[in-house]
Design goal:
The structure is a homodimer of 197-residue chains. Chain A is built from eight helices and five strands. With 197 residues, chain A is an alpha+beta fold. In chain A, helix 1 packs across helix 6 and helix 2 crosses helix 6. The two termini of chain A are 26 Å apart. The interface between A and B is large, with 83 and 82 residues. Strand 1 of chain A pairs parallel with strand 5 of chain B.
Chain lengths: 197, 197
């Protein structure tokens, strides 16, 4: 049986972590990006399908490809971030299931020829992995700034021209500058979110 | 700037955590369920929309309502789990945005009259919150066993008859019995998941 994480860890992951808009001029090493992926891959997905695909846009050339597709309010802060990760998912993730889910070699057939079911499974599980991604980044000491305000079709055409991968959301990564934080928004109460029956 | 979590915490959240199928006969107190929700609510969602809604099915009467809608392979283990959480999302989450996202009082209008956009936003962000839920449960020392194998429409009719909430996935909670674990499935490699540009 596992113990509880201490309060310092819970604050870092959840209760005191903030969505950042401004960034310190401090590099994020590639080794840290690799470590995030090596944590994310262990998070649970249905039939271990692991549909998330991630492009870390770090170079000036990469940023220039991304910039035209960002909403006006997200452009400057993303260009200033050390890294912007495109969180996408593979609509043909099921091609890997015979290797990834050896418990049931028929799993691939659940999706073959059922594009709507495959898309929904990729979107659900790719989103789960997107959340693992943000908490993994926080766990290794980075700050996140996730965004939905961009032209998905434009990003997909630029970064995923073969049509198999679809962008889900973007997430800036780096060491946040608290001066750029908004006031923290209120949260729903327990009774608005949950019940016990 | 935050430090890194230590290896013990990373193992508990990611690298050594497992999806459990068998459960110790040990109660999960309601206070722990409340604590999970109080962590999940701080996780980032777009425009702080927080669409996830959670029903913790804990009583025998609640389990009896859930049982008919589970796939055969998920029924017995769910009935034996101390708690099964229904992770759902509110298709009308945007009604709360004037309170939850005071930075932009127009946010509600992005979704009013655009049911497809609202559904996709609820599903994406509700899935993010579902992942926060699993990692929060692990963070407070519980084990998880998430499942997609159930009749969503049947669960929705039984638990959400007004049609505004839609089930996403189920997650058993408790203290896992390692005797019920499958062999761990392989994971994709870094170069299959990600690239740095």
């Amino acid at each position: 049986m596992a113990d509880r994480l201490d309060q310092t860890a819970l604050k870092q992951l959840f209760t005191e972590a903030r969505t950042h808009n401004a960034w310190q001029k401090r590099d994020v090493p590639d080794a840290l990006l690799r470590e995030i992926v090596d944590l994310v891959k262990w998070g649970p997905t249905s039939a271990n399908c692991e549909p998330a695909r991630i492009v870390f846009v770090k170079s000036a050339a990469g940023k220039a490809r991304l910039a035209p597709h960002l909403s006006a309010g997200n452009r400057d802060k993303t260009m200033a971030a050390p890294v912007c990760a495109i969180i996408a998912h593979d609509l043909e993730f099921y091609e890997h299931l015979p290797r990834l889910f050896p418990h049931n070699l028929a799993a691939k057939t659940w999706f073959n020829g059922n594009a709507a079911h495959a898309e929904r499974t990729a979107f659900r599980n790719g989103s789960l992995q997107g959340a693992y991604f943000m908490l993994a980044a926080r766990a290794v000491g980075l700050d996140c700034g996730a965004m939905s305000g961009f032209d998905n079709a434009g990003v997909d055409k630029e970064f995923f021209p073969d049509g198999k991968l679809k962008s889900n959301f973007l997430c800036n990564l780096g060491y946040g500058d608290p001066a750029g934080l908004f006031a923290r928004s209120p949260r729903l109460g327990f009774d608005e979110i949950a019940k016990i029956v």
